[in-house]
Amino acid sequence: MGTQKPQTRGIDSQGLITRRTVLRASILGAGAITAAPLLAACGSDSGNDTGNSPRTAPSLVKPSGTVTLTLWTWAWPEEPLATELKNAFEQAVPEVKLEVKKFPFPDYETGLRTAVPNGTSGDVLHLQTGSMIRQYTQFLSPLEDLAKQAYGADWETQFLDGSVKEIRDSVAKGDPLVAMPQQSSIGGVLWVNRAVLAKAGGTVPTSHEHFVEISKELRSQNLVAATWGAKDNWPNTDYLVQFASQFKPGIIAAAEAGEASFTDDAVVAGLNYLKRTLTDQLWNAAPFATPAFPDAYDLFFNGKAATAAIGTWGTAALFATPNRLTDWAACLWPKLPDAPQDDWMGQSVSGIPQASSPSAVRPWRTVNVATAMRGDLTPDKQWAAWKFIEWSCGEAGQKAGSATYTPARKGIRPDGLNAEWQKIYDWHNELGKGAERREFAFIETRKAIESAIAAVCVNNADPKAELQRVDAAAKRARA
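and the corresponding structure tokens:
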């Protein structure tokens, strides 16, 4: 994501975004989607059985000497930044010696499933929002009271809009807040390679029809308008979440919660539009057949594509070569045909330095990494664990970590951005106020949606029939 690279979505040393790797000098933790099966030890991951969930804050006892604290993670930087970040924490909290155990992401999922219920996992855990947090809620300590004590009564407003709510929404109703946002990103925003776009007029797409024109011109030059690595499946739901929201904001999240149906006209319209983008050839050839996610993004990084749906979680890619900070820009996907006008952006713009269109497509948001502590720790370990969370999610830790991941706190940017990209980065986070929730509460829902998208886009299946199957899967998961 020598040293083994962490298995998460990020960027390799050439600037290539991969599903499970990150830039050697940067851990982005881009919210790779967990595919872990349900915990047998926990019963259903619906979270309905909350009898074992802790309800009170842990009793913290400052140790008289040094305490060794173990962090389990897939999202930790490579050397030398790994040691620099560890040292920064230990200097801030000298009573604690931090040991970091970093896993490849699939191994991490496997390790958590047995070690967390058995009490043999790390003292502090990095988790993804949605189904991963939901599986382990009953084994984690509640943190809200500690957050109020550390950051003040308004602590939640100090984090990027929606990030704390995303963690709250990851657990069943009535369960406590059990993790804090450490890394948070806005995704789905189109990043633009100006040099490639110049070969098709130089203007970002301002409508679907304009996008099609750009694509035709670029294809004639063996270039592509947009990249999509649909073969990996998990990127596909991002587009459906975004496109469906243009017809009805929040519809995907509402449908998963049972408050609406996946057969709602808005979801059908979003899925039909996704299929239309294939028919109109906006993408690299045969995205479901040949390119995996890394291959598709490699087209953008290597100057073969005009746009890619990246967002702040790809910020480290800007630093891979000197020209990217000047050659790249960003905009939102233009308004969808037949979608209603929507002023969700308020006074914000739809692109920097060029606008795309009014009523442009919403981005998505995700807490890449949420930090939690086990609920069965001794009081001195609880103190040490909270000090790590407090520091990592506080201003000092977020500044120290900004060289390696996208901060979850407001007002903190990764280092090294030029003036224009500082504006673009802040603009991404501003758009987060209207962004869609990316993660799913249940892995069953995600898998069903992935299957529906592939069936409709590749096999010309009936959208409503496929979405009825998604409804059934979500209902079973909620039971």
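(Above: one complete record from the training split.) The chain has 17 helices and twelve strands.
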